[in-house]
Description:
Layout: H1 2-18, H2 23-30, H3 33-66, H4 72-84, H5 87-98, H6 105-110, H7 119-130, H8 132-145, H9 148-155, H10 160-189, H11 192-198, H12 208-217, H13 221-257
Helix pairs in contact: 1-13, 2-13, 3-7, 3-8, 3-10, 5-7, 5-11, 7-10, 7-11, 8-10, 9-10, 10-13, 12-13
Amino acid sequence: MFLLFFLILPLLIVFQEAFSGGISLFFQALTDPDALAAIRLTLFTAAIVVPVNLVFGVCAAWAISKFKFKGKSVLITLIDLPFAVSPVIAGLIFILIFGSRGWLGPWFLSHDIQIIFATPGIVIATLFVTFPFVARELIPLMQAQGTEEEQAARVLGASGWQTFFRVTLPNIKWGLIYGLILCNARAMGEFGAVSVVSGHIRGYTNTMPLHVEILYNEYNFTAAFAIASLLALLALVTLVIKSVAETKISGNQIQTEL
């Protein structure tokens, strides 16, 4: 009953309201220039954030799970930091750093580089709130697998890169996919930090969640729910892929224990 009223029913209402004005109004809302700009900006941001998190997450998880070094606990704490800091507070921090009156803002403006109220600020804010997802998914998985297979590969003469690509990466591929799915979903749906640094400039700095808010505040409910239905569809696809990845991860963990 809880899932019915707080998950399934709201999801059905989103799609019902999206098509309440008919198919023509639905596609008209999606093809509006401001809506297309918001969709492009959202996809562009995710296209930058997800690969960066892929590289950082794998490197951080590999270092934490496979090696002992000074500052290891500090690195783990920094990875968990976005989970403890409110996204709105994170956005305000970036304004203090990159704003026109911030620490670094005047230097960037003097070189004709605008960070806040522009695409770079949105990318930086989204990157901050999403970078724990890949690392946090891989760290316990790689710790559970241990280092025996990597050590055996090195004994047999494999180089560091050969060990990573032929031993480590195949063992973590489903966990990596799972982390990337969560990272991508959060990147496309992030609201708080992006709302602070974007400036809400229609057709320029509005992502899909921000565009939904503007349309709803203007009482353009059909268009707002049409854009929201795209995010809801993304959530459904994410859940399906997430379920497949979880099944594969569970299977790999059972094989490792055996």
